[in-house]
Write a structure and sequence with these properties.
Layout lengths: L8 H12 L7 E7 L3 E7 L6 E7 L9 E2 L2 E2 L2 H9 L3 E3 L9 E6 L7 H12 L1 H6 L1 H11 L11 E6 L2 E7 L4 E6 L5 H17 L10 E5 L20 E6 L8 H10 L1 H34 L20 H9 L1
Helix pairs in contact: 1-3, 5-7, 6-8
Length: 324
């Protein structure tokens, strides 16, 4: 199974190309969309080739997810902590976007390794912004505290008009994903995949990973959630995160794995569907070959044709033959 990368490959490649040709005056204007309907826009003008404007549009939040100024709570603080003086947040952002960052590439560190690590972090802006609420709650879990003003049930947007839910407690955080798919085949494959995913938790050597449960009905943790959030045609997946899962460097991996879990499942569902179609085509081809081999061989009947020769006569010979 594959784990999705936290950074945008296209964004990282664009940043690397721009840094390598920083002295060349170029004009860039790129639009693209990545998984879960996250839209990006990059602009570089000829007048100031050192400055890059990066805009990002987030998935449309459902009513239960709380945004402040068009961003999840904790996003502004997370951006400042991740990028420091390299990035300036423009207020208001560009039209049609939730966030616009002004990057001064001339302020990148001279050390190549440090500079590349910072560019990867910039290319991971999706994780920084959308994962900000999750990071805040899991940091509190690491210190075994819960903010006094924290709701019992926290909704975090991860897909257009869809969210997953956190139940923060002092010693653990329960994470519940309502799994929804549009295609009927995807629903069947996802249900089977998630049941196997849950069984894999019992494999030897995975005792320290978060516990995973799947159920076809909403778990008790979602009591009080909006009715629309309780509609999931592929069931509900529940993870229980303990402080040991967010210690040190584990925090970043846990935040990214949880915030992209639905995309991770969707990826493997589509791979499974493609694999099944390939196997079906190969099976049909093998059956056709077997049927061709089973046909009785027809005897080749040789038809003998009497050979005839023709002689072209001259005009005088033809007249002679006609008179005789």
């Amino acid at each position: 199974m594959i784990l999705l990368q936290s950074h945008s490959r296209f964004l990282l490649q664009t940043l690397l190309n721009r840094v390598q040709n920083l002295e060349k005056g170029v004009e860039l204007d790129y639009h693209w969309v990545e998984f879960d309907d996250v839209r990006y826009h990059i602009q570089v003008s000829m007048k100031n080739s050192h400055v890059l404007l990066l805009s990002m549009s987030l998935p449309t939040p459902p009513p239960e997810a709380i945004f402040f100024g068009g961003l999840p709570f904790g996003a502004i603080e997370a951006i400042k902590a991740a990028y420091g003086v390299l990035v300036q947040i423009l207020d208001p952002p560009r039209d049609g976007f939730n966030l616009t960052l002004k990057l001064n590439l001339s302020k990148l560190p001279p050390d190549e390794e440090h500079r590349h690590a910072l560019l990867v972090k910039i290319a991971s802006v999706r994780e920084v912004v959308l994962g900000a609420p999750l990071r805040v709650i899991l940091k509190q879990l690491a210190s075994r505290t819960v903010a006094p003003n924290m709701d019992r049930l926290v909704a975090i947007v991860h897909r257009p008009n869809e969210s997953f839910f956190l139940v923060p407690q002092v010693g653990k955080v329960t994470v519940v994903f309502p799994m929804r798919f549009k295609d009927s085949i995807d629903i069947v494959l996802a249900t089977s995949f998630l049941q196997e995913f849950m069984e894999a938790r019992r494999t030897a050597g995975l005792n320290n990973v978060p516990s995973c449960l799947w159920s076809s009905s909403p778990p008790l943790e979602l009591k009080g959630a909006p009715g629309e959030a309780l509609l999931a045609n592929a069931g509900f997946v529940t993870f229980v995160i303990f402080p040991r899962h967010v210690e040190g460097k584990k925090l970043d991996r846990t935040v990214w794995s949880l915030s992209t879990f639905h995309a991770y499942v969707s990826y493997h569902v589509k791979c499974s569907e493609g694999f099944m179609h390939t196997r079906m085509r190969r099976r049909v081809e093998s059956l056709i070959q077997a049927l061709d081999r089973a046909k009785p061989e027809l005897e080749n009947s040789k038809k003998t044709v009497q050979s005839r020769s023709f002689k072209r006569l001259s005009l005088n010979e033809a007249r002679t033959n006609s008179k005789s």
